[in-house]
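This section describes the prediction task in plain terms. A model, or a person checking by hand, is given the sequence of a single protein chain and must write out its three-dimensional structure as a string of tokens. No templates, partner chains or ligands are provided. The sample shown here is typical of the held-out split.
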Amino acid sequence: QPQLVESGGGLVQAGGSLTLACTASGSGFSINRMGWWMQKPGKTRELAAVVASGGSTTYAESVKGRFTVSRDDANRAVYLQMNSLKPDDTAIYYCYANVFDRIKYESYWGRGTQVTVSA
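The expected answer:
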């Protein structure tokens, strides 16, 4: 199964930017969808931004126009460029990958990286 390792979280002031990165390691699978989920304080985890293998993207309404998800298939990496950050973007961001292991599709998440946006 894949191991997903995130980097790039931290503390930023409102209006600032951050870039998150995630790399998948392991063998015996191909990656279908890859991206990011977010869990805000006191709330359940929700999709932030995902990119499919064909390049189509899906964004949460709250991040549209401010976040950009991209992937590097050669390095099995996914990125999240976060601009115009708001305090409401404060969350743990989890890398996500939906992979095919020649039998079935399975979803995996990383351990998460904290993003804190101060007012």
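For orientation: The mean pLDDT is 96.
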